[in-house]
Amino acid sequence: MKIYKQVFLLIISMGFVLNSSLVIAHTAVTITVPKNGAVLSESPKEIILRFSDEAYLNSISLIDEQGEVVPLTSSLPEALARRLSISLPSLKDGSYTALWSAEGTDTHVIQGELSFSVESLPQQ
Ligand SMILES: [Cu+2]
């Protein structure tokens, strides 16, 4: 029984080493435009996601402050790239949240959320 336990522990610790090296290799978002929490004086033309390595965008959805999905008119970028941009329709004043999902070259899924608001008119 003892040898099994040692083998088991060895496998567990190898798993940790393997996992931590994968964590380092993960593709991550480095910059977004707009920045999370940004207050914009006009509707942004696009959302830009910059990654530490090439990534492929699986999906993105834009939700307004009523929780409604804002239809995106342009198609998603199909290429694997470090910089992915998604064109936006003209947005009226309000708060928006973009939920996106991408995949790095290691096939790991990366998900993120980006909130911003448009305030073209001075707030009363
Ligand atoms: Cu990864």
Which characteristics define this entry?
46% strand, 19% helix, alpha+beta, 124 residues, Immunoglobulin-like
Could you explain how this protein is built, in words?
It is a single chain. This protein is of the alpha+beta class and 124 residues long. It has one domain: Immunoglobulin-like (Sandwich). It has one helix and seven strands. The protein has one helix at residues 2-25; strands spanning 29-33, 38-40, 46-64, 69-70, 81-87, 94-104, 109-118. The longest helix has 24 residues, at 2-25. The radius of gyration is 20 Å and the shape is elongated. The model has no long low-confidence stretch (mean pLDDT 87). Copper (II) ion binds at residues 22, 25-26, 104, 106, 108.
Heteromolecules bound: copper (II) ion
Number of helices: 1
CATH-defined fold name:
Immunoglobulin-like
The proportion of strand residues reads over 45%
Secondary structural class: alpha+beta
Task: Return the CATH class.
Answer: Mainly Beta
Structure summary, number of beta strands: 7
